[in-house]
Amino acid sequence: MKLNITTITPTIVRSGEEISTVSECIIEGDNLYIVNKDKLINFLKTKKDNVKIIEELSKTVLEGQNLKGFLDKNNIPINEVCEPPLKLSEKMDDYRRKSVYLPMTSLKRAFIPGSTIKGILRSALLFHYYLSTKKEPPHRGDSKKDNSPYIGEDVLRNENKISTDIMKYVIVRDSSSINFEELRAYKIQRIPHRKLWQIIIAIPPQRKFSIEICIKKDKNYNGPGFWREFFEKDSEVKLWEYLKDYSNRLIDKELEILENLRRKNSGNENDGERKKIFDDFIKHYEEIQKRMFNKNVIFIPIGFGKTYYFNSLGYFLSSNVPIRRKNVDLKFYPSTRWAVEINEKYYPFRMVCTNKK
Predict the structure, then answer these.
(1) Which has the higher per-residue pLDDT, 331 or 196?
(2) Which helix (H) or strand (E) holds 15?
(3) Which segments constitute the CRISPR type III-associated protein domain (predicted)?
């Protein structure tokens, strides 16, 4: 099954790597420059007083000063020691000592890992199981943090044996890729409070990728009996239906939570600003809802920033259950979201549109 994926809002699948705004990148105007360390060192070696200049560079970094000042002082052109600039989504003044999250890349090209999509498919299969059986899944409060079970091992495996895990029959290849220069740097904020923010390098909206999903047939299938029929006939058709149902229900649930949060925050100080944030989010999801009736289109969040409800567990939790040692009202859980501001409107990031080729 071949799929097209189009980013709707900025999206990042994190590589796990970060760069520092002190020593590894420069923010100037509406550009972010990533320092190429090899180019910088080689350039410094051409200077007469290179030992002294390198010592000055070390001092600049240790004191948390802007590298741009160091480059200007020593007549080092920024384009000679940095990668081509990435555009910033907005001006960033207070960025000192911030880390910048980097996306998955290969050979300076950004892509969506097959493992990321496979994780979503796994959640959709679990989601279908719990809907079909009416069973209640475990949740994060069921076990100690240091001894958390592999969620779903009782559903996707026989006797918790990894060799029987049905996901071994689902193969997802990495997506096509885009040039690193097409990426953008965004400031994301934890709303509605906005005190916590982060810089990310992400895939902008309206970038297109293709990806392939293969479902293997095995005469010696050894997974749980519940899934045998799924793998025997029309596996790809069923998988698309399960993913579609998973997406539609969770988007409806997200809208329900956002509307509850808007009502909850309406009486707080600065409620006008908070209301606008939730209004923007709600409008975004309402626009998606209008397109959800197309059976050939699926909207899913991928990568960094998903909430607990965007998996197969949160949707099924009954109200007022203990989560991580505290009671929460699931009408408002979770109460914060990562958001990106574009043209004075707030959007949830990491949303993509998927359709069959």
Answers:
(1) 196
(2) strand 14-20
(3) 5-307
